[in-house]
Write a structure and sequence with these properties.
Blueprint (H helix, E strand, L loop, with lengths): L1 H16 L4 E3 L1 H11 L1 H20 L6 E13 L3 E17 L3 H67 L5 H36 L7 E3 L15 H5 L3 H25 L2 E12 L6 E11 L7 H67 L5 H36 L6
Parallel strand pairs: 1-4
Antiparallel strand pairs: 2-3, 3-5, 5-6
Length: about 425
């Protein structure tokens, strides 16, 4: 009896603290994660930084304009001291740099593309964790309700067995076992309450909320059935963010090689001009202008350019192998996650059928035991099978959402856009 009072007090304390909770729907959870998740916000800023870097790489195609104002003072023993002032406006334009500027700009565009693919991959990853955490919290909520129903059913069963024992139709061992079942049900109910708290804290972190934020989730979470026909995994793998990043790295390696060749072995052509004033007094009045063309031809750099070209060539070859390995890895990952996706979908249907069958059997068995048509051992077996089927169904439903989330993540998609 003392244990019953303790369990009742703890369960009541959990129930009172859980009143008036906000209910967060799946749509609201997606909205919160998209706007408040720290990982997504960090990747978004990384993409923004590289977009500015791409804009900066375009500056090589435009003329460089600068203005200067200088003052100098000199002294010689024979001629004495002198002072001069100068104001200059200079314009410089590169006409050819061995295609290095063009390749650097193309490389910066690949960096931006990789950042956008990383953001897409991060959204898919967070979306998968969101669905898994949402399903875990929903599972904990339903488990609390189920364990409460089991506790109530165990309490009713215990009373039935006690009445039959008092009437001389049951033995003391059955009474003690029924009481032990009730204590176990009370313990499981308390344990599920603790699971509810930890699951809520995990989901709150993904949503960008405080871990102590008190809320519940709605049961309307989308569940999609696997397609009847198996997808073309090779084609699907070629569209995943991870493989597209490998392709972008491959193109970056080619641009790095072209940059090394161009800057080390091809000439550079620049045109520059200026207009300014110089005088001994401020503001200078004597005006002048200049214009010139400069052709720079690299002849020898001590082997640095040759070594840089060889290094870039090796790096490019490495990205070729990395791209091929990534494609094969993505195909395997897609096949594995899709197989798990189909299996979990079928498993849920099987467990649902078992649950419905056990509910009917449990109702019939209780009636038979009340009427003395079934032994306690047979009834106890049916009751335990019913409880196991109900818990198995909840767990299969949770696994079903989790595996579907991994299938979406493998393809680089998800609820977060």
């Amino acid at each position: 009896m003392n244990r019953f009072i303790l369990y009742s007090f703890l369960i009541l304390s959990f129930s009172v603290s859980g009143q008036a909770q906000e209910v967060i729907t799946w749509e609201k959870a997606v909205e919160l994660a998209q706007s408040h998740n720290a990982e997504i916000l960090a990747e978004s800023k990384n993409l923004e930084a590289l977009q500015y870097g791409e804009a900066g790489a375009r500056s090589a195609f435009f003329p460089q304009l600068s203005a200067s104002l200088s003052s100098t003072q000199s002294h010689q023993e024979e001629t004495g001291g002198s002072r001069g002032f100068a104001a200059q406006l200079s314009l410089k334009q590169n006409l050819f740099a061995g295609f290095a500027d063009l390749n650097r700009y193309a490389r910066s565009k690949e960096d931006t593309l990789i950042a956008s693919l990383k953001l897409q991959q991060k959204k898919a990853e967070v979306s998968a964790r969101l669905k898994q955490s949402y399903a875990n919290y929903l599972y904990a909520q339903n488990l609390v309700k189920l364990n409460d129903l089991i506790r109530q059913r165990r309490s009713e069963n215990m009373k039935i067995v006690e009445l039959r024992f008092e009437g001389g139709r049951e033995n003391r061992g059955s009474v003690l076992l029924a009481q032990a079942y009730f204590d176990e049900a009370s313990y499981n109910h308390l344990q599920s309450q603790l699971l509810l708290r930890t699951s809520r804290a995990e989901l709150a972190t993904i949503l960008g909320l405080s871990a102590d934020y008190d809320f519940m989730v709605d049961d309307a979470i989308p569940m999609n059935e696997p397609a009847a026909e198996e997808p073309a995994f090779e084609q699907l793998a070629a569209t995943t963010p991870k493989f597209l990043q490998a392709e972008a790295d491959y193109r970056k390696g080619k641009y790095d090689l072209d940059i090394a060749k161009g800057s080390g072995f091809l000439p550079s052509l620049d045109v520059a001009g200026g207009y300014g004033r110089s005088d001994e007094n401020f503001f200078p009045e004597r005006a002048g202008w200049n214009v010139g063309v400069t052709l720079t031809v690299p002849l020898f750099s001590g082997g640095k350019d040759w070594a840089a070209t060889k290094s870039a060539s090796s790096q490019w070859t490495a990205t070729t192998h990395s791209k091929d390995a990534t494609l094969r890895s993505e195909i395997v990952n897609l096949r594995t996650t899709y197989a798990n996706y189909k299996v979990s979908s079928q498993r849920l249907k099987v467990d649902l059928n078992f649950r419905e069958a056990q509910l009917v059997r449990g109702k019939i068995a209780r009636g038979k035991y009340n009427n003395g048509l079934m032994s306690f051992e047979d009834w106890d077996r049916v009751e335990n099978e019913l409880i196991q089927s109900e818990r198995a169904y909840l767990d299969s439903r949770r696994q079903r959402f989790s595996v579907e989330a991994l299938w979406e993540q493998a393809r680089g998609v998800g609820a977060i856009l």
